[in-house]
Amino acid sequence: MTPDILDILLLLFGGYYLFGVIFKPAIFWERGRILRTRDIIGDQKTLILYGGLAVFMLGVGIWGSFQ
Questions:
Q1: 6 near 63, Cβ under 8 Å?
Q2: Which residues of 19-56 are buried (b: 16+ CB within 10 A; e: fewer)?
Q3: 15 FRET partner, CA 20 to 30 A, in 1, 22, 54, 55?
Q4: Cα separation of 36 and 51, whole Å?
Q5: What pLDDT score does 67 carry?
Q6: Using an 8 Å Cβ cutoff, are 4 and 64 in contact?
Q7: Angle at Cα 62 formed by Cα 60 and Cα 64, nearest 5°?
Q8: What are phi and psi of 3, to 5 degrees?
């Protein structure tokens, strides 16, 4: 019943995205793909998109850890 590497990665990336969405550090919020997404769809929709992605990744990672 040990978690797979994919479950661990989902938990890590989901936690990183959730941290970035909640605290909005510059290293997360003003670089790369997120900056381009903000330019295209706006700040509020980017926040919702990445927040939903974070919750989904954490949910799948937690669910997979207990399978």
A1: no
A2: ebbeeeeeebbeeeebeeebeeeeeeebbeebeeebee
A3: 1
A4: 16
A5: 79
A6: yes
A7: 65
A8: -70, 145
**Gap between the Cα atoms of 30 and 38, Å rounded:** 9
Read off the pLDDT of residues 18-67 as tens digits, 9 standing for 90 and up.
999 999 999 999 999 999 999 999 999 999 999 999 999 999 999 998 87
Which amino acid type is present at position 47? L
Provide the terminal-to-terminal Cα distance of the chain, rounded to the nearest Å: 7
Q: What is the pTM of this model?
A: 0.89
Which backbone phi and psi does 38 adopt, to 5 degrees? Answer: -60, -40
Structure tokens at 48: 């919702």
What six digits make up the tokens of 24?
Answer: 């909005």
